[in-house]
Write a structure and sequence with these properties.
Number of strands of chain B: 0
Strand content of chain A: 15-25%
CATH topology of the domain at 185-365 in chain A: Rossmann fold
Structural class of chain B: mainly alpha
Helix content of chain B: over 70%
Order of helices and strands of chain A: HEEEEEEEEHHEHEHEHEHEHEHHH
CATH architecture of the domain at 185-365 in chain A: 3-Layer(aba) Sandwich
Oligomer: heterodimer
Chain lengths: 409, 274
């Protein structure tokens, strides 16, 4: 009887043990349940619209981040943006936004042959996928669209540029008309320019040529255009005095314009027969090869005067030092800020920055040039007034005026 | 004259001998590193030629001489031909042909990008520019020149107005009193640290006064006399200090170029340094 009781007790105890183990297993399972990634909440209020003030091929998306982003179970890692040509797909991934972000710029290429080409005036559909640590666990937003990208004719962020351009052009036209009507427009003395006439006279007395270097700019650079005017003036004097002129050119188009300028100057001086096309010649479009050639000319032809007017780069000091070695009087003018110090050091006269542009007006005295110079002076005065207003407004915290002058790229 | 001619011939002979000695020496040097004979001869020649041309150019520092003239003319000729080839292959073949002809694209082995009729506009302008070579119809090239100069000037007007004018004006809006809480606070917290109140205020004052006086210097409608003259003088002083700093910085860059050339001569050519 006792044995039967023990057996029965054991039989009863074993299930209890098993139940306990099951409860342990159950507890482990519930632990496993707590670390399983649950699907996050999708983003809401997704909108898509064309990016403004651009040339097209870009769409902006904005949304309210997932409720699980930084809150709740905090299992949101980021968002992937998907695009399709139809609301039902197939969708391709366009990019990733980080957790916490609420916008994305989908920018494509405008080149048809590019793999990232994004056509304008085509319906696109978007959805935003909320991502978690597990790639298979995510939540898609509703699909929005159709939305089209297109370019704008006007960039409204640059309205201040338009105002300044219109204002400057109005002043310039007014001053040019004033100059054309015969008004005497005062331009202060520029030492470097007055030295040009003196230098040309020196070259004539010594019977040596004048070397005129137009720089390394193209015919469209402002400094080169100003240099053409000065070249015209120099060439006219040279034609009158029957002095030699050497104009080695870096750019073929600059050579073409320089030839036209010099030829016109010789004709103006009444000496068309003295014009020699070989005065103005092309050397090479390699920077230091050009410099090597000009240096050779300086030491072989020994010009009395070297005039450097235009755009210069690293070769400026080499040219100026070699000219000093040859004993030439040197007059330089450039708007390249980094090269001005070298010309100041090595040349007898230097036109700094805008003085080069003013020189062409000072020498030529043409109404168009004089009027433009006067308009520039008015613009400078406007800059000073605006700077004072800006300084006052920034101290009083009136940011609107300051913001007007922040022009987007 | 006879003596100078003899000296010139002896120097020239010496240069030729040195050239061949260097060539042979560099060739054997390359061969000992395992390079094939043909490649060693080629590399030995090129490195010797580069070294001799470098020395020929540097000889200009002494005076003009036939070796400098040779190097100069070689440099000018090779660079002119090189840029012509680059211009043809990059602009004409790389840019124009893929947009106008699939047959020519195949011939030049460049990918055809689809026909675009607008690319004939620069072609016509380019042909008009080439008419400069003819004295009878050379006037046609002026239209191309007018287009180039006018278009670039118009585009640059907007670019410079935005970057060089309005942005610069905007950057001049600086507070002259930075984090101002009274003179007591200013003097009690006085320090020369770069983010300190004093240095920031000093910088802003320099910017403001420098811009003002610099603009006055470039004012051409009034003589620089009286207060205007004094401000103009301050402006040019500020400009010259800036130019001096730029000068020193650029000279450092030029010295590094010289170091590069000397390294080539002493390491790659003569093998005197590792």
């Amino acid at each position: 009887m006792r044995q039967k009781l023990i057996i029965i007790m054991c039989l009863l105890f074993i299930p209890a043990l098993a139940a306990g183990q099951e409860s342990v297993i159950t507890a482990d399972s519930s632990l496993v349940d707590t670390i399983t990634v649950v699907p996050p909440a999708p983003v809401t209020d997704l909108i898509a619209y064309d990016k403004n003030n651009d040339h097209g091929h870009a769409i902006i998306l904005k949304w309210t981040p997932s409720a699980d982003d930084g809150a709740g179970k905090k299992n949101v890692l980021g968002y992937s943006i998907h695009r399709s040509l139809s609301p039902n797909g197939p969708f391709e991934e366009r990019g990733i936004a980080a957790a916490g972000d609420a916008s994305y710029n989908d920018v494509g290429s405008k080149e048809r042959e590019s793999a990232d080409y994004m056509a304008d005036h085509v319906d696109y559909y978007y959805k935003v996928r909320t991502l978690t640590a597990d790639e298979s666990v995510y939540a898609d937003s509703e699909v929005v669209g159709p939305v089209q990208s297109y370019g704008q004719w006007f960039n409204t962020d640059r309205w201040m540029v338009l105002i300044f351009v219109i204002g400057f052009m109005a002043i310039m036209i007014f001053m040019i008309n004033k100059a054309r009507r015969g008004a005497k427009l005062f331009v202060r003395r520029l030492a470097g320019i007055e030295a040009v006439d003196e230098a040309i006279g020196r070259a004539t007395e010594m019977g040596k040529p004048i070397l005129y270097v137009l720089g390394l700019g193209t015919a469209a650079e402002i400094a080169t255009i100003a240099s053409f005017t000065i070249l015209g003036r120099v060439a006219k004097k040279v034609a009158e005095y029957q002095t030699g002129l050497i104009v080695p050119c870096y750019d073929p188009i600059v050579m073409t314009v320089a030839q036209e300028t010099v030829k016109a100057s010789y004709m103006d001086a009444g000496r068309p027969d003295s014009y020699d096309e070989d005065m103005v010649y092309f050397v090479t479009q390699s920077q230091f090869a050009y410099v090597a050639a000009v240096n050779g000319v300086m030491l072989r032809e020994l010009p009395a005067t070297n005039i450097y007017m235009g755009k210069f780069f690293a070769e400026s000091l080499i040219l100026a030092e070699t000219g000093a070695l040859a004993g030439s009087i040197q007059i330089a003018g450039t708007d390249e800020i980094a090269q001005i110090p070298f010309f100041v050091v090595a040349c007898d006269y230097t036109l700094i920055g805008e003085e080069l542009y003013a020189a062409s007006a000072y020498l030529g005295r043409e109404p168009v040039l004089l009027g433009s110079l006067k308009a520039q002076d008015y613009a400078k005065a406007a800059v000073m007034v605006i700077a004072v207003i800006g300084f006052i407004t920034i101290h009083f915290g009136w940011d609107t005026f300051v913001e007007w002058f922040h022009v987007a790229n | 004259m006879e003596n100078s001619k003899k000296i010139s011939i002896i120097v020239f002979a010496g240069v030729i001998v040195l050239f061949f000695v260097s060539w042979i020496s560099k060739t054997s040097g390359f061969q000992s590193t395992g390079l094939p004979f043909g490649a060693s001869v080629r590399d030995g020649f090129l490195i010797t030629l580069a070294a001799f041309l470098t020395l020929a150019i540097i000889s200009f520092l002494y005076k003009d001489n036939p070796y400098y003239k040779f190097a100069e003319h070689l440099f000018v000729g090779v660079s002119a031909a090189y840029w012509m080839c680059v211009g043809f292959w990059s602009t004409f073949v790389g840019n124009f042909i893929p947009k106008v002809s699939s047959t020519l694209s195949g011939f030049f082995e460049v990918p055809y990008k689809g026909f675009d009729i607008f690319y004939f506009v620069p072609l016509i302008l380019g042909i008009m520019l080439l008419m400069r070579l003819s004295s009878k119809v050379g006037w046609v090239s002026r239209w191309s020149l007018a287009f180039i100069v006018g278009t670039t000037a118009g585009l640059n007007l907007i670019r410079y107005m935005r970057s060089d004018f309005i942005s610069q004006v905007s950057n001049t809006f600086v507070p002259l009193l930075v984090e101002w809480q009274g003179t007591g606070h200013f003097f009690s917290n006085f320090n020369l640290s770069i983010s300190g109140q004093f240095v920031m205020m000093l910088g802003n004052w320099v910017i403001f006064i420098g811009v003002f006086c610099g603009i006055i210097y470039f004012f051409f409608s009034k003589e620089h006399t009286g207060f205007f003259g004094a401000a103009s003088k301050l402006g040019i002083w500020i400009l010259m200090v800036t130019f001096g700093a730029s000068f020193g910085y650029t000279v450092m860059g030029r010295v590094s170029l010289l170091v590069g050339r000397l390294t080539f001569l002493f390491r790659d050519w003569l093998g005197l340094i590792n």
